[in-house]
Design brief:
The structure is a single chain. By secondary structure, this protein is of the alpha/beta class. The chain has 2 domains: 135 residues, Enolase-like, N-terminal domain (Enolase-like, domain 1, 2-Layer Sandwich), CATH 3.30.390.10; 241 residues, Alpha-Beta Barrel (TIM Barrel). The protein contains 12 helices and 14 strands. α7 links the parallel β8 and β9. α5 runs parallel beside α6.
Length: 397
């Protein structure tokens, strides 16, 4: 079997309604299609941020790398992984390169599973569980009343955990957050009110995860985490930018909540300092950014050696969810798998069958590969022109 084509699709995100208001974001998804001379197609994904810019850029990068893979044996997954990784040393092996590898790697595992008529998890050592526990997100919390409603909806659907960023970024002033790492007084107080309302709405047993998105300096992150600890938050995620291990260490040593990091870390090498310096209680690599199925399995095994749970990140589409679930079926030290939305039914028009989610758990069947296929008619009808000039709108991320 030989690869005949590897290409990307940049696809519009479906319009969605939240609280009866139409929400349309020009962000979309980036999917990878790898075709073979035996008619087997594999699917991957590398949807990234900031959507309007980064998705177009990564798509062009992947298409160039894809032309380099024509004629390769798709079963040589490890060799192809290293061919791209080592071949792009001068360009840089993290970020765009590790994302490109991720999408291609997922598609190659999908091909292998389809060729052998086996789900990927059976090719990775077999299942250690019969379902995948999920946590989800409410719509972006705007006020205590808003989060109260949506948190209750999540719990009523059977979820045992949810994550939010309550920091009210639109209230930040001047350079706050993005440059000086601070938060305005108004935004901080509203964040505390939202966390308190969420805890009151769901009671003491539901896990509330807080995502700081790596935006804060050490004193701000420390203060926010410890104030929110009064409402028994489960973890405080990405308290500081990913570039400084020492900053992360300072925060971890001073806060009460557990610390989770990893969505901005690429490949196993960037997780080594986390493990060796006790910098996190949970790790959360993103399968579509850190190196695909091949690399996520390796990172999970590294974490297992340190008795650190792994909880893969997801802020994108159905391939991310299903490929991450395939790996986590085989991982002893799994916590929960993130899903980017509470209601994932908007995936349905993109894929050949709905995700089987019941009471906050995802169930996989024995469908070969990653377990789903993309709808090529939908992709063609919703493909975005990556050469079209855009006006960047941060709210579309």
């Amino acid at each position: 079997m030989k690869i005949t084509r590897a290409r990307s699709w940049v696809v519009k995100q479906p319009a969605r309604k939240i609280d009866n208001q139409l929400k349309i974001k020009d962000r979309g998804f980036v999917f990878i299609q790898v075709d073979t001379d035996e008619g087997i197609t594999g699917w991957g994904e590398i949807t990234t941020y900031p959507g309007p810019v980064a998705n177009r850029a990564i798509s062009a990068y992947v298409d160039q790398i894809g032309s380099w893979l024509v004629g390769e044996d798709p079963e040589d997954i490890e060799r192809i992984w290293n061919k791209i990784f080592r071949g792009m040393t001068y360009v840089g092996t993290r970020g765009a390169t590790s994302a490109a590898i991720s999408g291609i790697d997922i598609a190659l595992w999908d091909i292998k599973g389809k060729m052998l008529n086996q789900p990927v998890y059976k090719l990775l050592g077999g299942a250690v569980r019969d379902k995948i526990a999920l946590y989800c997100h409410p719509p972006e919390p705007e006020n205590p009343e808003h989060i109260t409603k949506h948190a209750k909806d999540i719990v009523n659907a059977g979820y045992k955990a949810f994550k939010m960023d309550p920091m009210m970024h639109h209230l930040h002033v001047g350079n706050s957050t993005f440059l000086d790492g601070e938060i305005s007084a108004d935004a901080e107080e509203k964040a505390i009110e939202i966390v308190a309302a969420a805890r009151e709405a769901v009671g003491p047993k539901i896990e509330i995860l807080i995502d700081a998105h790596g935006l804060y300096n050490v004193p701000t992150a420390t203060r926010l985490a410890n104030r929110m600890a009064d409402w028994n938050i489960f973890w405080f995620e990405e308290p500081v930018p990913a570039e400084s291990w020492k900053a992360l260490k300072q925060v971890k040593e001073q806060v009460k909540p557990l610390i989770s990091v990893g969505e901005r870390l690429h490949t196993r090498w960037e997780f080594i300092p986390i493990f060796e310096n006790n910098l996190a209680d949970f790790v959360m690599p993103d399968i579509t950014w850190t190196g695909g199925i091949t690399e996520l399995k390796k990172i999970a095994t590294m974490a297992e050696a340190y008795y650190i749970p792994i909880s893969p990140h997801d802020a994108s589409g159905p391939i991310n969810v299903m490929s991450g679930a395939q790996v986590m079926m085989t991982v002893p030290n799994f916590y929960k798998l993130e899903t980017s939305r509470f209601d994932l039914s908007y995936y349905n028009e993109m894929i050949d069958k709905p995700l089987n989610i019941k009471n906050g758990d995802l169930y996989l069947d024995e469908s070969p590969g990653i377990g789903i296929n993309l709808n090529e008619e939908y992709l063609a009808a919703n493909e975005m022109d990556i050469n079209r000039p855009i006006e960047y709108d941060p709210s579309a991320d």
